[in-house]
Amino acid sequence: MARNVAQSHLERNGLASLDHKLALAKRCGHEGVVAGAKAAVLATIASAVPTLASVRMLPWARAHLNPTAQALIISTVAGSAYFIVADKTVLATARRNSFKDYSNIQA
User: Fold this and answer.
1) Residue 36 in contact with residue 86, Cβ under 8 Å?
2) Domain that residue 71 falls in
3) Please, are residues 36 and 83 in contact by the beta-carbon 8 Å criterion?
4) Sign of CA dihedral 39, 44, 47, 53
């Protein structure tokens, strides 16, 4: 006694849809982490070179920037680059995925 009953919206978008959304969210987060790590490495190099060079060449910097201050400058730049790029990447990926879902619904 098989009945052909149309599936409701909730049944059609059940666990499979939830698993798909979780997989998209994990991939989105992973892309953000990778992009943020790349940005942090570049920002570390870009801030370490002038910071360390200025401490060796400029008398004011030599007198006022001890090793803790140098590390704080470099790590602050790297941390802020990581979080900014990771956040932008996650938001861009989520936006792209939401537009994919919207175009599938409209079709």
Assistant:
1) yes
2) 36-100
3) yes
4) negative
8 A C-beta contact, residue 93 and residue 32: yes
Q: Would you say residue 42 lies in a domain?
A: yes
Count of structural domains within the chain: 1
pLDDT in tens, the chain (107 residues): 455 555 555 455 566 677 888 888 888 889 999 999 999 999 999 999 999 999 999 999 999 999 999 999 999 999 999 999 999 999 998 888 777 655 555 55
Going by C-alpha positions, the residue among 90, 10, 2, 76 that lies closest to residue 40 is 76
58 in any annotated domain: yes
CA 106 to chain centre: 29
Q: What is the DSSP string of 13-72?
A: TSHHHHHHHHHHHHHHHHHHHHHHHHHHHHHHHHHHHHHHHHHHH-HHHHHH--HHHHHH
